[in-house]
Amino acid sequence: MNLFRLLGLSFKTQALYFAVFVSRYLDLFFHYVSAYNSIMKVFFIASSGYILYLMKFKYRPTHDPSIDTFKIEYLLAPSLILGLIFNYNFSVTEVLWSFSIFLECVAILPQLFMLQRTGEAETITTHYLAALGAYRALYIPNWIYRYFAQGTVDPIAVVAGIVQTGLYLDFFYVYFTKVMQGEKFELPA
């Protein structure tokens, strides 16, 4: 059974998420916030690295690079440039944080591109993608809460979050009109 071919996961999207977590949580080694914060940072990095390991080594025969063809250079370079231009303090950690925010907002593109190429996906893959999209969409109530409770707005995170949520709109339309109705995820022709 070709587990990952059936699931249709993009190795490149997973690698981009790993880059997001490593660059965002690099401060783990010199900025202590709390035990919970540190444990969660290690968890995000370790679990993303483990997924890459599984996809690259344990389940390597099931990964088809001929389908996962999105050029991630087109995401990495602009994210780095935006991170260098838009940050709150021109330091290594702040630039990496900004880079990670911009990269996260487009990290799903290789996965969506793969879905576009194949035209369909297994139900478990669509649930996974919906969870990723919901995770980011749930930041919106957090921003509203922080604005009213703390009077703060993070324009970098808000703009990137709106872009990322926007990238999911087509996917969510098909997800709610087909998958949630018990049908298979298939893109309209």
Topology:
Layout: H1 3-7, H2 11-24, H3 35-58, H4 73-85, H5 92-106, H6 109-118, E1 120-121, H7 123-137, H8 139-150, H9 155-167, H10 169-177, E2 185-186
Helix pairs in contact: 2-3, 2-5, 4-5, 5-9, 7-9
Runs with pLDDT <50, length 5+?
1-6
Percentage of β-strand residues: under 5%
Shape designation: globular
**Into which percent range does the helicity of residues fall?**
55-70%
Largest sheet: 2 strands, antiparallel
> What's the Cα radius of gyration?
17 Å
Distance between the termini: 28 Å
Mean pLDDT: 89
- Provide a count of the helices: 10
Structural class: mainly alpha
- Counting DSSP E segments of at least 2 residues, the number of strands comes to 2
Order of helical and strand elements: HHHHHHEHHHHE
Transmembrane segments: 31-53, 74-90, 156-176
Membrane topology: Multi-pass membrane protein
Family: Belongs to the ERD2 family.
Protein name: ER lumen protein-retaining receptor
